[in-house]
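Design request, tokens follow.
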């Protein structure tokens, strides 16, 4: 199911992409800079489309970056939710 969703994301759905601009909640995007499943550029594109989005890019981290950087992810998430 997740694989299908990721693959479908690669096919532009312009209506869905435009709807990202309607997200009013602050958004935290966490990504590894060597993720081979979802290109790094996609996180920056996503952050550019969602108002108030913040990107944290973990160096030398793959698709499981939040696990590779668990303590840092915890601190970043708690700080983000506290704001």
């Amino acid at each position: 199911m997740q694989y299908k969703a990721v693959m479908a994301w690669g096919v532009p759905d312009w209506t869905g992409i435009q709807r990202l601009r309607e997200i009013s909640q602050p958004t935290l995007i966490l990504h590894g800079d060597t993720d081979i499943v979802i290109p790094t550029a996609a996180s920056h594109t996503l952050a550019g489309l969602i108002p108030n989005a913040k990107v944290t890019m973990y160096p030398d981290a793959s698709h499981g970056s939040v696990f590779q950087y668990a303590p840092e992810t915890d601190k970043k998430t708690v700080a983000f939710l506290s704001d």
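Comment from the thread starter after seeing the answer: thanks! The radius of gyration is 13 Å.
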